[in-house]
Amino acid sequence: MTEERVIEVEKLTKRFGDFTAVDGITFHVRRGEIFGFLGANGAGKTTAMRMLCGLLSPTAGRAEVAGFDVYREADRIKHHIGYMSQRFSLYEDLTVAENIRLFGGIYGLTKRAIRERGAELISRLELQEEAHHRVGSLPLGWKQKLAFSVAVIHRPRIVFLDEPTGGVDPITRRRFWDLIIQAADAGITVFVTTHYMDEAEYCDRVSMMVDGRIEALDSPAALKRQFEASTMDEVFLQLARKATRRDD
User: Fold this and answer.
1) Is a pLDDT exceeding 70 seen at residue 112?
2) Which of 21, 30, 83, 245 is the Cys-Cys partner for 47 at CB 3.0 to 4.6 Å?
3) Per its UniProt record, what PANTHER family does this chain match (predicted)?
């Protein structure tokens, strides 16, 4: 992790009619950092991520991702990031190898790079026997590891992961986080949303969202000290109660 900032956000806001999904959030993310975007379902995490990926236009505020403005340069942002959706982002009716070739082409890799990186990816995930099987036939844990590996096959500056471990068992979740840590060690910035508070322990820093607002932002250890808590679940419960009292 370096001090170089690859994401900068100031008072970013998104409204849908009278409903404010993201309410004036401000933060930055450094290169090589694992940045956790935590909060309950409906807290505004996915909406914020979609704005940063150039998929949704903000209502107000400003943000830059990989040095590009989210208003004017959304298409350029897309060329410098990877993205993995919570709803699984590969084509289940294509084989493992076909998905790799397809997304490698979408990300602009040469045929040679696709062959070389695809072979390395399949070997690293130990999917040699499944390379020509349809993705839909794979266990969920393998699908998720494959989806993540394909999302970074073009070696982007930043990868956005939206609830990547939803619906899998704790052992599979831990193995998935091993891939995230390896990507960060290689210099890729990881921006990950999750509602699993224990996953915050894997992050360098976390922001904790409640009802569209960032209520706290720091390292997991610092937040636990600040709130005199032993777990991140306890920190979040205190923040949620504080927000409820404020809004009453």
Assistant:
1) yes
2) 21
3) ABC TRANSPORTER G FAMILY MEMBER 20 ISOFORM X1, ATP-BINDING CASSETTE, SUB-FAMILY H, MEMBER 1
